[in-house]
Amino acid sequence: MNPSRRPSDSGGKHPFLLNYGRSRLPLQENLFRIMHLLSARPPLLPPSEEKFLQQRIARPIGSLPLRQMLKPGDSVAVAISDVTRYSATEKILTPLLGETDAAGIPRKRVTLFVARGMHRALSPEELRTVAGPEISSGVRVEQSDPDGETVHVGTTSRGTPVLLCRSLMEHDRIVLTGTISFHYFAGFGGGRKTLVPGCAGRETAEATHYRIFRTEGPGKHPLARPGILAGNPVHQDIIEAVSMAPPAFLVNTLLTPEKNLFDTVAGHWQKAHEEGCARYAKIYRVRIPRKYPLVIASAGGFPKDINFIQSHKAMDHAFLAMEPGGVMILLAECPDGFGSPEFLPWFRFGNPEEMEKELRADYQIYGQTAHAAFVKAKACRIILVSSLRPEDVERMGMTPAASLQAAVEEARRHLGELPPALVMPDAGYVLPDPQR
After folding, report:
1. Confidence (pLDDT) at 171
2. Distance CA 201, CA 179 (A)
C-alpha cells in the first residue's frame, strides 16, 4: 500500500489533527505544497468483541482449550501488561477467567501477575485501570520485580542465564496475555516477551537485550529490527529462554491505533504468537515508494508516548522512511519523562561509537535505547515536540520545539523550504517499508 497523496488545497480551514498524549495538535495542510499521509487500511472489526474473544479462546491455535489443560487444584498465574502498553487486558480477562472457572479453579487460586519488566511499579489506580473490573473478582494481584527473588531455570545457548520471578514460578500454570505490535529490535512485541523479559530478573533482561549487537564486529545485528523474527538473535534468545519454563496458554490481542480490537490469537505460546505477528504485519507493514526529506510523526498518543523510551519505537519507524540527513518532527508528550533515571546519563558520550563501546563493556537496557536514539540524532535533524526540558532534549542531540507550529518553522529554517512531507499519524503502529 502506498501513502495517500494529500495536496494542500484546504486553505488551512480543516487542519489535520495528530495525537499528542491525551490531546491532539493541529497540522495546517496549507503549509505544504504536497503532503503524503502514511497510514494502514483500517481492518474489519468483529461485530461483538465478547463473542469473538470467546470463540478465539475456545478454538486455540496449536493447543487444547485452556479449560482442558487445567485441574481443579491448580494455581494459575495470568501475566498481564503494565501501563506502558494498552493490551485490552480488561476485555481478555473475563473470557479467560471463564476458562479457569470451567476447570473448577477458584478465583483465589488465580493471580494477575503484572509483567512490568524493567519498568516502574504500578500504583493501585493504575492496577485497576490495566486489569479492569476482574481485579475485584477475588483474584490475587502481584507485580514482577526484576531485582526481586528469582528462580534459575537454565542458560541459553548464547549464554543468557534464565532467571524468572520466584512467586510466578510457584504457580502450577502460567498464562500469557498481551498485545502484538512491532518492536524495534525484537521484531514483534507480545507473546514470549510477557515472560522474558516481562517477568524475568534484571540479568536475564539485560542479556537478551544485549543480543541486539553483532558478535563479529561493531554495530547492530542486521536482523534485530522491527517486523523480523526469522534469524533475529534477540527473538531467538528469548524463545530459547521461555522454552525452559513454557507457559500453558497465550491470549494476545491485535489492536488498531484507536485501541479497537480487530483480531485475537489464543493457544500455544509460540505458534499462536507467530500467527498473530503475521496477521498484524499484513495490516500495519505499509510499502512506500521512496524515502522523504521531511517526516512528521506522532507516536500515537497515550500510552505510546507515556515516556521517551516508549516513544523511541515510533521514532525508529519514522527513521526508516527518512532520507539521509533529512528532518524528522516527532510528537511525543512524555508525561513520565524519559521512563528511567538510567537513560539520560548515557548521553555523556560524544558519539554513538563511544557509547557502544561502553555498552559492550557494561550493558544497561536503557543505555541501549539511548544508543539507538543517539545514532538517529547524529544521522538526521530530529525536532522533538514534548514536555521534556529543552536542555535535556538538546543533550540527546535533538532540537526541542514548544509546539508543532514551531517545529515546522524550525524544519523550514533547516531545509530552506518545506519539501513534500510524509506524515505518520500512528508511527508507533505503522511500519514503513521503503521499496528498494
Report:
1. 98
2. 22
Instruction: Find out whether 292 and 420 touch, Cβ atoms under 8 Å.
Output: yes
Q: What are phi and psi of 106, to 5 degrees?
A: -65, 150
State how far the Cα of 60 lies from the Cα of 9, in Å rounded to an integer: 50
At residue 6, the pLDDT reads: 45
Low-confidence ranges of the chain (pLDDT < 50): 1, 5-13
Hey, what domains does the chain have and what are their CATH numbers? 4-37+289-434 (3.90.226.30), 49-282 (3.40.50.11440)
403-411: Cβ within 8 A, 24+ apart: 403/25, 404/18, 404/20, 404/25, 404/26, 404/27, 404/329, 404/331, 405/28, 407/329, 407/383, 408/27, 408/31, 408/296, 408/329, 410/383, 411/294, 411/327, 411/329, 411/381, 411/383
With contact defined as beta carbons under 8 Å apart, do 173 and 100 qualify? no
- pLDDT for position 395: 97
What is the C-alpha separation between 365 and 200, in angstroms, rounded? Answer: 13
User: Which residues have CB under 8 Å from 401's CB, separation 6+?
Assistant: 329, 383, 384, 385, 407, 410
**If you write DSSP's letter for every residue of 318-352 in order, what string do you get?**
HHHTEEEEEEEEEE---TTTTS-TTTGGGGGSSSH
Residue carrying the nine cell digits 500455544: 268
- In DSSP terms, 401 is beta-bridged to 385
Q: CA-to-CA distance for 307 and 338, rounded, in angstroms?
A: 5
- Is 244 buried (19+), middle (13-18) or exposed (0-12) by CB count in 10 A? middle
Q: Residue 17 has which C-alpha cell?
A: 489533527
The SS3 of residue 425 is coil
Reduced to 3 states (helix: H, G, I; strand: E, B; else coil), residue 56 is helix
- Provide the residue count of the chain: 436
In the chain, count H helices and then E strands.
13, 21
Residue 16 has what pLDDT?
A: 85
Rounded-to-integer distance, Cα 431 and Cα 414, Å: 26
Cα–Cα distance between 231 and 219 in angstroms, integer?
17
Q: How high is the pLDDT of residue 222?
A: 94
Q: Answer yes or no: pTM beyond 0.90.
A: yes
Place of cell 507467530: 274
Q: Is the dihedral of CA 16, 19, 20, 22 positive or negative?
A: positive
